[in-house]
Design goal:
Chains A, B: Acts as a magnesium transporter. The structure is a homodimer of 472-residue chains. Chain A is an alpha/beta fold. The first copy, chain A, has three domains: 135 residues, Alpha Horseshoe (MgtE N-terminal fold); 106 residues, CBS-domain; 172 residues, Tetracycline Repressor, domain 2 (Orthogonal Bundle). The first copy, chain A, has 23 helices and seven strands. Chain A has a four-stranded mixed beta sheet with strand order 1-2-3-4. Chain A is elongated, with a radius of gyration of 30 Å. Chain A starts with 22 loop residues before the first helix and ends in a 7-residue tail after the last helix.
Chain lengths: 472, 472
């Protein structure tokens, strides 16, 4: 990918080392006094992280002011430095013509990422302003699912017909050097008559081979490739197994349609795992930043909390059903939250192990029984140890009152640990099989089921031990 | 990085498409009949993921049999395909001489990763068998902290003195082509007399520039670089802001000491976030796979569960203290687990948002007050909504008995939601400030504090509302 350099060195100001600039305050001030050259200097001068932080603090109006005041070239530099989310927010604030000018220096995959985040109307308006070839590539790339080889590939690659000579290829590279500046040239792809992939030539072999031979004599035949429909986990496995920095992408007719870079795949995996982490944390309604208004953030979090409170009430209904038992043995109320928390923790551990094994390919989604068995063994061991520990504590605390309470609480925790790890270990595999996110397993549903079972075990057993009430 | 190709095409057998091979069963069978050529075919033929899965299922004895029977060349191929964990397990099973032969084709950073996972004695024995230059590089790289530029960099790079001509550089590249095969050549670095970094020449500029000029006329001056001590988050920001595939690494004397590739950084970030996810899931004692024996996995999980049960007992002590209140209003027992779970969820959401903002650089570790304020606003809103909802449910369920119970439960949840998000949002920043893992915030400590507070609010308020007991 190309880098858009700052236009001149003079624009840079140096900050004495160690002197910390408060980027958000500085940007605020520059916008307030509407200092154009100061703002440009800010954009070219701040590290990307500081710039992202400062821009995330702006109000919608300030953001619009910033991007509209900056010349397109400086805006292009800014858009390259920021994350896709922040960059597309900025694009939405300017005229389609300026937006097109700002995305023009980017490679087609980056253009596609940015433009496809906009509303359809805005995207269409920008595409109409873009160079028609570029617009065609963006539309083509946007037609693929995001996390597939097609959706991640770039359209900037170099392909030559296999009948050309090494010299012809090198001459073409020299002649079009300035155009190819924006290409990430490491491999040159060799194609047959109708575009089908025949081989790969490493750039270094071009440097090292003098010129009259046919290019296909120095190409690597039967090159590895990925297919445009390959999903993220296939791509991950591919790049794990190969040390290539990029791979050609072919369509169903074996034609070369793009190039997917290792870095693009690594980045997509990183984003997917960061989303998974947010979801595990209970942030399900897309990405939240603290620059959003409080009510909108509250609403997003409620999307997770509101169903959760309902599920909690379902589990609590077991406790309500056995209220008479609690009335007679109030000590049980002390241990119910412990049962709930410990079972939840054991279940989440099993989910974490399953997710890791799925990610590393150490387990296949159809190996549910094997996983179940392996987890139950661990659950039995930990259930016995934890159950005994909690049982002894309960006996020590309330033995004088009800000698059997330790047994009841311990047995309930032991049994529920087995159930929790069995569910936690196997549900991620089942979710993966039906193409859902395995991280969903470590959520409120798991907790509800383990709560239900845990409360039931403890309270049912306790009721068994209680002598019948004397008739009124 | 180089790829070690299978030595000949004949070794490959093709599987009819769609016919699924059960890789673990096949490997098991091949080991049982001790079929050397079958095992070699298996290694060269299976996709990396299947091979990893099959090897993870082997017993220690089978693993040792496999790697000892394979010729070193095939073992080298295998080691390249597997993850560092699995590969270093295999290296530990063979003689130092064979291990050295197996790691020989790898670049120095991969050699270092593998060898530094072994015991000191084993590592030393392998280093003595290795080519002395390679061994020196491994020792040099191993002296850096793992997640720094020095720890992630490779020692294979091309550097030329600035006084050389373009032709001399190209001639050197041609002459040493076979040696440089194992280099990831995209940039050529230009150094001054004592090794200090002066500039960078892109390989494509070498291709495109004819030769008598001095190399420093076509180099990019003031090249971007990273310092050997830079940590992972600095490297992440660097590569986020730049589109380079690799960056030169310099030491405190500005001397070029290595090259760090974008892919190595992305991979290290991925590993760090996968470890963070495991820790959030409660797997703290290193990486667990289901091929480990059940008792050892149970023990590893207990490392997290055992302290957790103690913390749970601490929180439960509040409930024990107010047992007389529960005796009189048993309905409270129904709502305590709900309070505990809902507060935990709200707190974890705040942790997840803080971790994401820290990772993206949208918040700095010292912005605790700002984060606290932003979270408290969200906490107030959600606290009021959730508290009202739970309060109404409680009133509906038990209003006939104690009309005030809805108020007590609702107020406790509202107040505790504010506390949870305040802790959950700010503790990751504080942990980051003292260089600890912010993911630790979403753990048992958070839950214990929010449980303590939630139980206290509900039970203290309830006690206030209760009329004094008649004297015995």
């Amino acid at each position: 990918m190309p880098e858009t350099d700052p236009p001149s060195e003079e624009l840079k100001v140096s900050t004495p080392e160690g002197a910390e600039v408060d980027a958000p305050a500085l940007l605020d001030h520059l916008l307030e006094v509407n200092d154009l050259s100061g703002l440009q200097r800010f954009v070219y001068d701040q590290p990307a992280g500081e710039m992202a932080r400062a821009i995330s603090r702006l109000t919608d109006e300030e953001r619009s002011q910033l991007i509209n005041i900056l010349p397109a070239e400086c805006g292009a530099y800014l858009v390259e430095e920021l994350s896709v989310e922040q960059a597309s927010d900025l694009l939405a604030e300017v005229s389609p013509a300026k937006a097109a000018e700002m995305v023009d220096p980017l490679p087609s995959d980056a253009q596609t990422d940015l433009i496809s985040r906009l509303d359809d109307d805005e995207a269409e308006a920008i595409l109409r302003e873009l160079d028609p070839d570029d617009a065609y590539e963006v539309r083509r790339l946007a037609s693929y699912e995001p996390d597939t080889a097609g959706g991640l590939m770039a359209a900037e690659y170099l392909a030559f017909f296999q009948t050309m000579s090494v010299r012809e290829v090198v001459d073409d590279l020299r002649t079009n050097a300035s155009e190819y500046q924006e290409y990430d040239v490491q491999y040159v792809y060799i194609i047959g008559k109708s575009g089908e992939l025949r081989g790969v030539v490493r750039l270094r072999d071009l440097v090292l081979t003098p010129g009259d031979e046919r290019i296909d004599t120095i190409m690597i035949r039967n090159p590895t490739f990925v297919r445009d429909q390959d999903d993220l986990s296939t791509l991950e496995q591919f790049f794990d197994a190969q040390f290539f920095q990029a791979a050609p992408v072919i369509d169903e007719h074996e034609r070369l349609v793009g190039v997917v870079r290792r870095a693009a795949v690594e980045e997509a995996i990183g984003e997917a795992s960061s989303k998974a982490m947010l979801r595990i944390g209970g942030i399900i309604a897309g990405e939240e930043t603290r620059s959003m208004p409080a009510w909108s953030r509250a609403l997003r979090r409620l999307a997770f909390l509101a169903p959760n409170i309902v599920l909690n009430l379902v589990a609590a209904s077991v406790v309500a059903f056995y209220e008479p038992t609690i009335k007679r043995v109030t000590a049980l109320a002390i241990f119910l939250p412990i049962l709930s928390d410990m079972s939840g923790c054991s279940g989440n551990q099993a989910v974490a192990v399953s997710m890791r094994e799925l990610a590393l390919g150490l387990v296949k989604p159809n190996e549910v029984l094997r996983t179940l068995w392996k987890e139950v063994m661990v659950g039995l061991l930990n259930g016995m140890i934890l159950g005994t520990a909690l049982g002894l504590v309960a006996y020590a605390m309330r033995g004088e009152q009800f000698a059997w309470i330790g047994l009841v609480v311990g047995a309930a925790l032991a049994a529920n640990t087995v159930i929790s790890v069995a569910i936690g270990g196997s549900v991620p595999l089942l979710l993966k099989r039906i193409k859902m996110d395995p991280a969903m397993a470590s959520g409120p549903i798991l907790t509800t089921i383990t709560d239900l079972c845990g409360f039931f075990f403890a309270l049912y057993l306790a009721t068994l031990f209680l002598p019948p009430l004397p008739p009124d």
